[in-house]
Amino acid sequence: MLEIINHTLFKKDHTYARMVDRYLPETGAGVNIYSDHQRQLIQQLRPQVKKEFFFTITDVRTGKIIYSEGVDKWLGFASSHFNQKTYLGCLHPGHAVVQNFFSLSLFDLLIGKEITAGHHSPVCTGTIALKNSKGSFLYCKKTSYPFFITNESYVGEYLSEYIIIKGYAGEDYSMVLNDDKVSYNERIYKRARHRFEENSGFSTQELRIIKRYAYSKDPTSEQIAQAFKIQKGTVDKFNKRILKKTELLYKMSFANAKDTALYFRKTGLI
Description:
Blueprint: H1 16-23, H2 35-45, E1 53-59, E2 65-69, H3 71-74, H4 84-90, H5 93-111, E3 124-131, E4 137-149, E5 155-167, E6 174-177, H6 182-199, H7 204-215, H8 221-228, H9 232-250, H10 257-267
Antiparallel strand pairs: 1-2, 1-5, 3-4, 3-6, 4-5
Helix pairs in contact: 1-5, 5-6, 7-9, 7-10, 8-9
């Protein structure tokens, strides 16, 4: 749900720790009002581990995975040593940074009390690619729930369930909020797009070109140059920068700037 990577793209943004401080009360405040439900839930989930299923529990304040089951069977990592660093290392590079934008945006909604969270009521569902210990990526459906809720209604821990769909074949990362109100998903996408514009690593002109490629029908460099009143050679230089930055910052390679733009459009970030 809130797996946020300490990535160079976010040096100018709020750190995870600052966002946690804005959201959670001081350590020790509040009590766990669902401890019995927690134990029952874990007992209910354990049999599902046999069916290409695993789950993790993460502490919101520290960002650390404090419990997991099934990762040894389906990812090949010992559950007792499966921590946040291991998990982040499993993420597909192209999905990892995109997830950052959406996770930070979700945290914004939680901080602002714009979404309500109930015990084991799914907050968000999505798809993500995770690498197993053999180096193969698995395409998984991920659903996250509040697991620890205090009497002040803060989410202190969350549980993430993973169902393995198939071997990964280039599918995109996705995340939607589990709520009937369409406005919630509109809000999270709007916030993610804003964060992307502020912290994407692309310059203002590069983003303009990316958007033009993404939303125009088969644009050429000449047409881009004409639209922005610059030389075609300048556009070609921007295209090369876009490809280089995408590979450097997002660990993804594309044949051309148009394909890069279409990828970011599919993610919902532009």
